[in-house]
Amino acid sequence: MTSEFLPGFATQEIETTGARIHLATGGSGPPLLMLHGHPQTHLTWHKIAPHLAEHFTVVLPDLRGYGDSSKPEGGPRHVNYSKREMAADQIEVMRALGFPRFDL
Fold first, then answer.
1. CA nearest 96: which of 31, 14, 17, 28?
2. Which end of the chain is more exposed for a tag (fewer CB within 10 A), N or C?
3. Which domain covers residue 20, as residue numbers?
4. DSSP conformation class of 102
5. What pLDDT, on a 0 to 100 scale, did the predictor assign at position 4?
6. The domain that contains 73 carries what CATH number?
7. pTM (predicted TM-score)
């Protein structure tokens, strides 16, 4: 499926160990993972991502708990939303896309 707000980008979902991550990808070249802040989603990059896609394979995920990604239970002390867990999701996403190394 293509993203209506990101022409030329395709959307998909990738299952990680702890969440289902929604993302958009576009372009070609070295992989570039772009992470949004709170309370945004991957669409925060809609103005710059198409330009970056001219030189990079741009990966725009919704972090767990945001946008169209899954919203797992928080767990004790909200551990399921720790930076460690969110980073692990992104490493799994990039590996699933075939990118063991990437820029952030």
1. 14
2. N
3. 10-96
4. -
5. 79
6. 3.40.50.1820
7. 0.95
Q: Please state the length of the chain.
A: 104
* Residue 51 belongs to some domain of the structure: yes
Tokens of 27: 């372009």
- DSSP per-residue codes, 8-75: T-EEEEEE-SS-EEEEEEEE-SSEEE----TT--GGGGTTTHHHHTTTSEEEEEPPTTSTTS------
- CA pseudo-torsion sign 80, 86, 87, 88: positive
Which tens digits make up the pLDDT trace of 88-101?
999 999 999 999 99
**Residue with structure tokens 């070295």?**
30
In a domain, 50, yes or no: yes
- Tell me what pLDDT residue 51 has: 97
Q: Within a domain: residue 15?
A: yes
